[in-house]
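Hi support team,

I submitted a single chain yesterday and got back a structure, but I'm not sure I'm reading the token output correctly. Could someone confirm the output below corresponds to the sequence I sent? I've pasted both exactly as they appear in my results page.

Thanks,
R.
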Amino acid sequence: MTVMTSFQVLYAGKGKLRIASEPTGAYIYVDGKKKTMTGEGFTSILLEEGEYTIKLVKPIDEKNEYTDSKKIFVGEDTSIKIHFELIQKYTNKIISELRKRWKRNNETVIDEKLGLMWEDNYSSKSMKKTWNDAKKYCKKLSSNGFKDWRMPTYTELLSIVDYGNYNPSLIPVFKYVNTANNYWSSSIVKGHNEYVWCIDFEAGNSYHIKKTKYNSVRCVRSIAN
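Hi R., thanks for writing in. Yes, this is the structure output for that exact sequence:
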């Protein structure tokens, strides 16, 4: 689930944009061009009459930002009030990096950095099994022309968690996930052979759970880099 910050309120009319921002420090873009940053009180921008795309961007860190955009018409007799709901999203740089690393291929997702192919279909969301049955399912799985599937290790499963998002906390290229359930890994808890490490993709939390419980499973296979 994306995280929203405060409303940004914009007034358009008489050739002028007046933007009230709380908190301050949001960049204002007009038709893709950065114009200024919101400060205390109102920030004004003079424009010719016409239609514009206004985008507000509030940086969070190097990976994330709050952003929203709308089309507006500015004219001599225009007087409107528009609410911007800034929603947490990846920066364009991170989106570009993710697109280079993660690729969809039919009902799978390929991690080109780690050399892994992940199952991503309706079964990844709907199916629940005990740990032993989940291991058997992956071993017998024939999908996308491959038969060498297995249950992922805890480290591999952790690599698809996206802590920049919530519900799901999952790399966005994946389409199928059950956030109400944990996902099995093949990693047994040291000193406790009846427990296995699991991850929930609602918030990306880790748990050790008995093998006899019913959890979701997402199979993986290794590919050549």
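A quick pointer for reading it: Residues 1-9 have pLDDT under 50 and may be disordered. Let us know if anything else looks off.

Best,
Support desk
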